[in-house]
């Protein structure tokens, strides 16, 4: 990942049961991306869920905005070792998006408008654990932070919370994503410091 924000102020270590091992707190929101920030207008934005059978469910921006909205507050933890506490978002729960989807999938892959992918077990995106969010701290989500919409999966390292989200595909087998194929851990639990595959 590259593109650290100029406003990033550095390390503030703290003893807390909310900060995973090896992490430090920041009050900033560093910007780290695998490539340039895409420009995606809401007129062109859609979100798609594709079941393992090929069944597709698609929402445009207006349809998505009409879905029930939630305002989760969560701590987030980046693999580059910063943590940020009590971040507040607004968006649609993945449970809502899956309500009409007939699936027995064991895995999911999140896709983005710039071609990035990241994988996770299906069980990790249900039961109020994941969202597609369009606001951060009461404001529309800025493009550098994934706007107009990003995936939010706060209990795993933040590379799993893909920016500029466009789709989730459901699978019977695991399909490693961009960083996972490059050597990052397949799961990414910050509390277990699952940063990289074994051997790194």
TrEMBL record:
Residues 1-30 are annotated as: Disordered. Residues 35-179 form the Oxidoreductase molybdopterin-binding domain. It comes from the Bacteria. Pfam families: Oxidored_molyb. This is DMSO/TMAO reductase YedYZ molybdopterin-dependent catalytic subunit.
């Amino acid at each position: 990942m590259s593109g650290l924000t100029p406003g990033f102020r550095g390390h503030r270590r703290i003893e807390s049961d909310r900060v995973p091992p090896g992490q430090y707190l920041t009050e900033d929101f560093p910007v780290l991306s695998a490539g340039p920030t895409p420009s995606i207008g809401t007129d062109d934005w859609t979100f798609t869920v594709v079941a393992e059978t090929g069944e597709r469910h698609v929402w445009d921006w207006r349809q998505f905005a009409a879905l029930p909205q939630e305002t989760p507050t969560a701590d987030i933890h980046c693999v580059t070792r910063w943590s940020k506490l009590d971040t507040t978002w607004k968006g649609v729960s993945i449970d809502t998006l899956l309500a009409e989807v007939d699936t027995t999938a064991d895995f999911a892959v999140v896709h983005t408008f710039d071609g990035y992918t990241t994988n996770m077990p299906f069980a990790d995106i249900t039961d109020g654990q994941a969202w597609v969010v369009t606001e951060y701290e009461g404001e529309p989500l800025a493009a550098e932070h994934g706007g107009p919409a990003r995936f939010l999966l706060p209990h795993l390292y933040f590379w799993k919370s893909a920016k500029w989200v466009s789709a989730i595909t459901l699978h019977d087998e695991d399909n490693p994503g961009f960083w996972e194929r490059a050597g990052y851990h397949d799961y990414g639990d910050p509390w277990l410091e699952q940063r990289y595959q074994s051997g790194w």
